[in-house]
């Protein structure tokens, strides 16, 4: 599908089939591609077909990078076509697993919210926030939907603001406040004959659309390329001229952390790290009709990996091991002094 194809002109069934074929050609990207294919099947109304793809991923002999995300998506999809009991069981399992990935928390909480389980949705959003954001002064970009969703549900429940609601208000950049956007009485304004109320609702809808477009404009993180020690040694042995870019593995790791902190300090949201391999990089270089020794290919390779869903969010969530592969917690490794 071309990036500029209008949404209303997309043949979702055909696009799902194309993505399935592509997954067969690129097994290393199969998880990301099949999740996209399942999303297209859901949009086409083929929810059983989407569930079959989720089951295919979950039963695969290849370990999944984001198994809790797949389960959350499966639960949300099942509930939409009548399998409520199974969906609830999966949602309970996702919550009990306490994933460090924010996306599963958002998906299962929104599934509960869409079926008017507002108290359970609030509890789920709160569990995710407690796990991922306790003692975190600057919430990572990927965790913001937890705070925004929690604010929305609590507004519908009519409960008083707490510290996380205040934080959500602070992170929200739209000119229309979250309180206005999440006002449960908004639906009534659409039937109003008062021009002022209708104009106010138009302003709110424009603000929501602007926020949605901003999120879509950054569909994958701004990612920095990371080479594990063995891959970097193989890369430099094959292409010695790259030693000017990578004097040592230790310096490479320090440069990654410094670059990400600099980007964060400049206000760049949604940051991540992608891990390279020599065969993958050589294949990318060949596709670009260029030499792997060309240093200008390195950031392009990083962006391509991020676009394929290979990026890991930075900074790591609280309690997660460091991105460098040392096995130590991020706060005890490259996160010291962050």
From TrEMBL:
UniProt protein name: SEC-C domain-containing protein
């Amino acid at each position: 599908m071309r990036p500029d194809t209008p949404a209303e002109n997309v043949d979702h069934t055909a696009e799902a089939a194309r993505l399935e074929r592509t997954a067969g050609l690129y097994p290393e990207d199969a998880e990301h591609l099949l999740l996209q294919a399942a999303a297209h099947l859901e949009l086409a109304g083929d929810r059983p077909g989407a569930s079959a793809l989720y089951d295919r991923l979950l039963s695969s002999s290849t370990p999944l990078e984001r198994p809790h995300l797949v389960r959350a998506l499966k639960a949300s999809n099942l509930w939409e076509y009548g399998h409520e009991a199974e969906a609830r069981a999966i949602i309970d399992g996702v919550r009990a697993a306490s994933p460090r990935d924010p996306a599963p928390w958002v998906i299962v909480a929104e599934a509960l919210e869409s079926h008017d389980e507002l108290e359970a949705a609030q509890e789920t959003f709160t569990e995710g926030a407690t796990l991922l954001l306790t003692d975190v002064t600057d919430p990572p970009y990927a965790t913001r939907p937890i705070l925004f969703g929690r604010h929305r549900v609590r507004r519908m429940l009519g409960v008083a603001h707490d510290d996380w609601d205040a934080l959500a208000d602070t992170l929200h950049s739209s000119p229309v406040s979250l309180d206005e956007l999440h006002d449960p009485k908004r639906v009534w304004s659409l039937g109003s004959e008062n021009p002022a109320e209708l104009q106010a609702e138009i302003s709110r809808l424009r603000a929501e659309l602007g926020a949605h477009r901003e999120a879509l404009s950054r569909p994958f993180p701004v990612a920095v390329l990371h080479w594990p020690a063995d891959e970097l040694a193989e890369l430099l042995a094959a292409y010695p001229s790259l030693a000017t870019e990578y004097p040592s593995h230790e310096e490479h790791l320090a440069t990654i952390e410094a670059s990400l902190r600099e980007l964060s300090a400049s206000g760049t949201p949604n940051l991540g790290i992608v891990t390279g391999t020599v065969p993958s990089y050589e294949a990318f270089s060949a596709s670009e009709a260029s030499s792997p020794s060309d240093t200008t290919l390195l950031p392009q390779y990083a962006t391509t990996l991020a676009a394929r869903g290979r990026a890991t969010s930075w900074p790591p969530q609280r309690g997660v091991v460091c991105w460098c592969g040392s096995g130590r917690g991020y706060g005890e490794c490259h996160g010291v002094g962050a």
